[in-house]
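Changelog note: in this version the structure field was regenerated for every chain. One regenerated record is shown below for reference.
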Amino acid sequence: MTLGRSPRPLPPPLAMSSAGEIATSASTATPTATATNEPTPSPIPVQGSRNTTPAAQRPHPKPGYPTCKLRFECRDLTHEGADVFLSANKVAEDLLAAVSTVLSILYKPSQSNSHIPGTRSVTLILEALEGVAYTMGSELDDDHKEIHFSLDYISEIPTEPPFRRRDEIQGVLVHEMVHCWQWNGHGTAPGGLIEGIADFVRLKAGLSPPHWKKEKKDNWDGGYQHTGYFLDWIESNYGKGSVRRVNEALMNKRYNEQAFWMGLFGKQVKELWDEYCKTMAQDVALENKQEPDGEVMMEKDEGKTKDQLEKVLE
């Protein structure tokens, strides 16, 4: 390859002596090196210097979770709820935290992440509406999600105990963010299971509100914290990652209750529910059991006074 050097001057012609011998002139002596501005060619690679480590043994980038664009819209900045929200929360930081929480609990990352929904954007919209919040696909397509959060509800969140407002707002955001990233059996999964998974994630994130409690009801799919606690029990008794398996099982197949739970845990969901209810009854009995020093625990009924409580000695 030509490097574009300027041609060097030719040496002077050789002088011939009378004897026919070639005589060298002083000017034709070996030239000494001089500084030039000519480029230095790259060194020729040494044979055998190529990396011969097998590809399987070379370090690979650690898989990470997908990202999406996050947007924020407040439709009434003069609403009291808007002031509460903006005072208690850092919008960008809290939305990023909600996405990270949801993905880390429901999925393990892979190189392709093809098992995670391809959500491209999430827009949080604060507006005056009844209820607490809801999530839907945008008008563009279902890969773009919208979380609608009630300003009326935000304005009524108690200020006590400390950080109550921030924790409640973040808890709702995490719950709704689950709906942006979870599978639903192509729309066939029970609504109670969908909402239960969302509250399970909120529970595991440490954002359960003070009024949540375990309650024995007729159906396992009553939804929200009712089903969330049931799923938490499954997670504890049937192995870490059980709820992740429940969610991912809704990725490609339509929901069939008998085949779904038998395939995951080898039992019908009614059997699992009965086991959970028995365990819950035992837990309640332990909570109400007499303390070692002979004092019984205070009952939760605020209508009872201390005079109505008796010491029971076993």
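Spot check on this record: Residues 16-33, 293-314 have pLDDT under 50 and may be disordered. Residues 269-288 form the longest helix (20 residues).
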